[in-house]
Write a structure and sequence with these properties.
single chain, eight-stranded antiparallel sheet, 6 helices, globular, alpha+beta
């Protein structure tokens, strides 16, 4: 049995609560940057197969914007945050103050890529800070790696090592709302702790994963 198959609904409920706290912190930071109220929440946390991950993101040939990073510290792993191109373009336009910006234009400017990196820093930092607070583990993100590519290539890159020991991941659904355009924006945060880190994280939360 894969280590990820041992997760039960109690574990997922804990991760959902942690995710919602992290989403609240991220919404506060984004609201300050965009100068408008942003709400974020995590309606669901679940275990999905790698094939389901690709379908959630639009299918293996669908082009998306993604932020990949490694989790370092007391427990290691990976995170991939995936946004559709229209949503990524919208956030970049808001952050740089240029309504004419097009994400289809290539090569992408350093400024636009910096905006995506900042968005990745805010979201990953908020989630990891929340997880670190709950577990009292020292967790921190690596510098995010930005990518605009097909879902299949994006996810395969992030899952290269994990695929050797599992065929599933934890997906943290993330919904952003601001009451104007994109009233309800859904992004997907894929949380992939390394095998040895599962026991560390859940033991720190006071629960065990039974073998």
């Amino acid at each position: 049995m894969s280590f990820i198959d041992k997760i039960n609904p109690i574990h997922l409920d804990i991760l959902k609560e942690i995710g919602n706290i992290g989403a609240g912190h991220a919404a506060t930071a984004l609201s300050a940057i965009l100068n408008r109220k942003i709400d974020m929440n995590v309606p669901d946390v679940r275990v999905v197969s790698f094939d389901e991950m690709m379908e959630l993101a639009g299918g293996p040939e669908h082009v998306v914007a993604s932020v990949f990073l490694r989790i370092e510290g007391d427990a290691t792993g990976s995170m991939i945050f995936i946004l559709s191109l229209p949503v990524a373009e919208y956030f970049i336009r808001q952050m740089i103050g240029d309504e004419t910006f097009s994400i289809d234009a290539s090569p992408h400017s350093e400024l636009s890529l910096s905006c995506l990196q900042e968005l990745g820093n805010i979201l990953s930092g908020s989630y990891l800070s929340s997880l670190s607070d709950f577990t009292r583990l020292n967790l921190y993100p690596s510098v995010p790696s930005l990518n605009i590519d097909m879902v299949g290539a994006t996810i395969s890159y992030g899952l290269l090592e994990l695929s050797q020991v599992s065929d599933s991941a934890i997906v943290i659904d993330t919904v952003l709302a601001q009451g104007e355009r994109f009233e309800s924006i859904t992004g997907h945060f894929f949380f992939l702790p390394d095998p040895d880190s599962f026991d560390t994280i859940f033991a720190a939360l006071g629960v065990t994963i039974n073998g």
